[in-house]
Amino acid sequence: MSSSSMPYVIGNWKMNLDVESAMALAEASAEIANETVDDVGVGIAIPSLWIPLISSEFFETSLLVGAQDCSPHPSGAYTGDISAPMLAPWCAFTLVGHSERRQHHAEGDDLVQAKLDAVIAHDMAALLCVGETQAQREAGNALDVVGEQVMRAAGHLDSGGLRNLLVAYEPVWAIGTGQTATPGDAQAVAAHIRALIAGLDAGAAAAAEVPILYGGSVKSANAADFFGEADIDGALVGGASLNADDFLEIVRAARGSGGPVVG
Fold first, then answer.
1. pLDDT tens for each residue of 164-213
2. Within a domain: residue 1?
3. Catalytic: 98?
4. Which residue in 85, 135, 145, 208 is a FRET match for 173, CA 20 to 30 A apart?
5. Residues 6+ positions from 43 with CB-CB distance below 8 Å
6. CATH code of 16's domain
């Protein structure tokens, strides 16, 4: 089974940029989104401090503004956390389960599921991040590890929930390292994810529509190789999303995977 989903290119800014740089990059990203609106969904997952400012400034553009994380709790004594209902007026989507959250904040699969449910319950899309470590891949366990992450977080979703799900396959060993999975290896994992979704009670019809992105040192030079694979529907882009020219070339590569590059 292959994808019939529109491609998406989502920039993950992580903990970068001051307010002036953030606004300038958001403006450039909005121009990119407007250029490719009919062919590629373009979004940015940005530091929470900038979300209301950027979302309100670029509300009338095609740019999808998202958060990098959210609390599983709607409110309460959770100092420093930001809830899904707080994000929902400003955000189209939220990342959940990024490997840096799993690593640096000890987030396990149960917490990732709770965050995913909170995001979807408040009418945002959840971009679920999954991926294996180098040791897990070398042991031949990549498909099992990724499959468990997907099923623990999203295996309970009904058809409505699946319509608000995107999945980003990001091998942990490729994030920010300059290493990448081969397109064939990434396709094998993406196809496995899609087959798992198709096997859910509500997933048979939805599986082809769930966007599956690749992330992990995606650059303008290698993006098209990944986008040419049947089950890869775009990219979650880290460092290259901080450079507007590089980000534009990746978006154009995604557009080219579904039709001619114009503009």
1. 999 999 999 888 787 878 999 999 999 999 999 999 988 788 899 999 99
2. no
3. yes
4. 208
5. 8, 9, 10, 11, 33, 63, 64, 65, 66, 92, 93
6. 3.20.20.70
Other CB atoms within a 10 A radius of the CB of residue 234 amount to 33
pTM of the model: 0.94
Distances (CA, A) of 175 to 191, 194, 240: 21, 22, 12
Q: Say if 141 falls within a structural domain.
A: yes
The structure tokens listed for 147 are 């499959």
Which residue out of 100, 132, 170, 229 is catalytically annotated? 170
Q: Are 159 and 199 in contact (CB under 8 A)?
A: no
Catalytic residue among 98, 100, 192, 249: 98
Q: How far apart are CA 77 and CA 31, in angstroms?
A: 40
Q: Distance between CA atoms of 86 and 82, rounded to whole angstroms?
A: 7
For residues 89-103, one letter each, b for 16 or more C-beta atoms within 10 angstroms of the residue's C-beta and e for the rest, the string is ebbbbbbbbbbbbbe
Strands 93-96, 165-169: pairing kind = unpaired
Residues in the chain: 263
- Assigned domain for 139 exists: yes
Query: Tell me, what amino acid is at 150?
Result: V
3 within a domain of the structure (yes/no) = no
Around Cβ 48, how many Cβ atoms within 10 Å?
16
In the residue annotation, 170 being an active-site residue is answered as yes
pLDDT digit string (tens) for 33-70?
Answer: 999 999 999 999 999 999 999 999 999 999 999 999 99
